[in-house]
């Protein structure tokens, strides 16, 4: 409620400053924290508030105890409200061409869309459009080519110069490509950014995102009949029986390894909300079938080998 009334005030303040002939971008770059009522400070607080709301929604989904219950669905329904807020903020910052906050909000928007198929995103957009004012309806039409939308958001993130945000944006883009059966472009994007080495040095949340991309690429290759590529991707995720840990889709229980309360809490903090999970049974099935298809010709050759 209240946060939705903040953006019109921010727009008004921006327009006033512009009408007075002041350089808004220059003032936004000032480090004058004393002027609490200044436009730059207002915008900084607003963007921070939007980011905090997005974080709190994610945590609420992350720590929901009953993922099949009404509570989880109720929290999940708030994600469309958060999406509306992010989109409104994005449109304002895009219109006013403010690189840093635009990149930060674009990254948030990207992370809330990348893991959903076009069929789901278009239904979410339709539902939002049905309750939106007439003048806003054009903003809530899911594009036919969602890959260009992901590319545009990634481009805005890239402009910030923040390495962590850039890395995550490219991984989100690759995941979205793989989800829509674009194996080669997704692989090219990973190779272009040298992500295999970069992922090892990245923070744990980015490592998890990288593992999710590899898993989704394995499923993508499997759907396209690229059995060797599917096996290469899936074996990376499925080996050592640690798929739940690698994808942050459940806590591992190792009898030989004692965990301190701090370690357990850290592991819980990086778990993904249930609705973002990749089906592990499907991953295992694709992995085993692709391994079998690759092994059968070898077994057949051995059976007819005259030297044996």
What would you note in describing this structure?
The chain is mainly alpha-helical and 308 residues long. It is built from 15 helices and no strands. It has helices at 2-19, 24-28, 39-62, 70-95, 99-113, 118-131, 146-158, 163-179, 183-192, 195-201, 204-223, 227-238, 243-246, 261-269, 280-303. Helix 1 runs parallel beside helix 4 and helix 3 (39-62) packs antiparallel against helix 4. The longest helix is centred in the N-terminal third of the chain and has 26 residues, at 70-95. The termini are far apart.
Fraction in helix: over 70%
* Principal-axis shape: elongated
SS class: mainly alpha
Largest sheet: none
First CA to last CA: what distance? 77 Å
Topology as a string of helices (H) and strands (E): HHHHHHHHHHHHHHH
Taking Cα atoms only, what radius of gyration do you get, to the nearest Å? 23 Å
Uncertain segments are none
Strand content: under 5%
Continuous helix count? 15
Number of strands: 0
Average of pLDDT: 87
What are the main properties of this structure?
308 residues, mainly alpha, 71% helix
